[in-house]
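Posting here for the record, re: pyridoxal-5'-phosphate.
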Amino acid sequence: MTSHPTAPYRLMAPGPVPLPSKVQEILSLPMIHHRTPEFTAILQRCLEGLKPIFQTQKDVFILSSTGSGAMEAALVNTLSPGDEILSICSGKFGERWTKMAQVFGYKVHCLDVPWGKAVDVEKVESYLKANPQVKAVLCQACETSTATTHPIEALARVIRQTQPECLFIVDAITAIGAMPLPMDTWDLDIVVAGSQKAFMLPTGLGFISLSERAWRAQEKSKTPRFYFDLKAEQQANKRGETLFSSSVSLIRALDWVIAEFNHKGLDSFIRRCELLADCTRSSAQSLGLQVYSQAPSSSVTAIQVPDGIDGVALRRHIEEKYAVTFMGGQDQLKGKIVRIGHLGAISNEDVVASIRSLGLALKDLGWPHFNEDQLTQTLNSLKSRLTC
Ligand SMILES: *Cc1c(COP(=O)(O)O)cnc(C)c1O
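Prediction output follows.
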């Protein structure tokens, strides 16, 4: 793909995302040992620097795993086999967390939400009222597989009002850095993130933070754990180390990303995602396409593939002819949506080129509603909005 003869390759997936050139540069630095004063200083800066990004005063941990490892850490550090939990399930990532929780022997009640819709907060409230034994609620802030957000602040409020000690565990892997999610202000108990989304890094780091309430649950939790033992991780961090070997290259690049967040402000990253998401939605609509989600996210947009067009073929065509990678849908959405990511080092030109490639690919595949003037107009207004 990178050696495409006519066009630069554009990675427009909701993770992994295009890397800033500075990140690529740092990743290629010579290796240093993780037990050196140089690396210890970097690690400590990262551990402190993640707190304002999570908007918490609590410790944030860096795990050498993908985001799913941090999702596992959230469960095994706070729950015990037999515990009842409520999992809000609105797509592939909700399903993954549900299955994971079942593996550890928790009794999982799955609240199925139609794909593309936000969860009904009242349903969560009535379930918790009827089931006061529930120990935790799991939810994606953004269900990346359907590009849909859930009302995390409102959920946190009803959980707290109905059940003071029930944990609210949030998968914020495509939310942190892309949408507001102040952990302490909203009183979230566990927040999980990953490196290959808004953190603009390769896949391989998971991040997690626990509230005071979650640490109380940690003391009682009886699930066996070894690699993801956060109490042990916390003690190691106090010594300036990670519990196991540190992912030196990724953490050095993380140090730069955190400095960027601090320098430009978390808000400016969030606003950038919101802008790109809004531009993508309005461009799609102006081409005569529909946005799939009823609660669209600012980290990824799902566009409905029009009737009569095979979404799998469309995506393959866009990749082969225009060198742009979008994601598709899975299961019931296979061939029905294309997902365009807004995270990472995406330039304005990338956004324009990806909308152009979507329009042209629909023309190539013979979509009867394709209109050349409409595409020109859409691209012109997109360019003027993004001033490029
Ligand atoms: C990417 C992602 C994950 C984590 O996936 P990994 O492949 O383990 O990094 C989890 N939840 C959501 C919502 C995601 O977007």
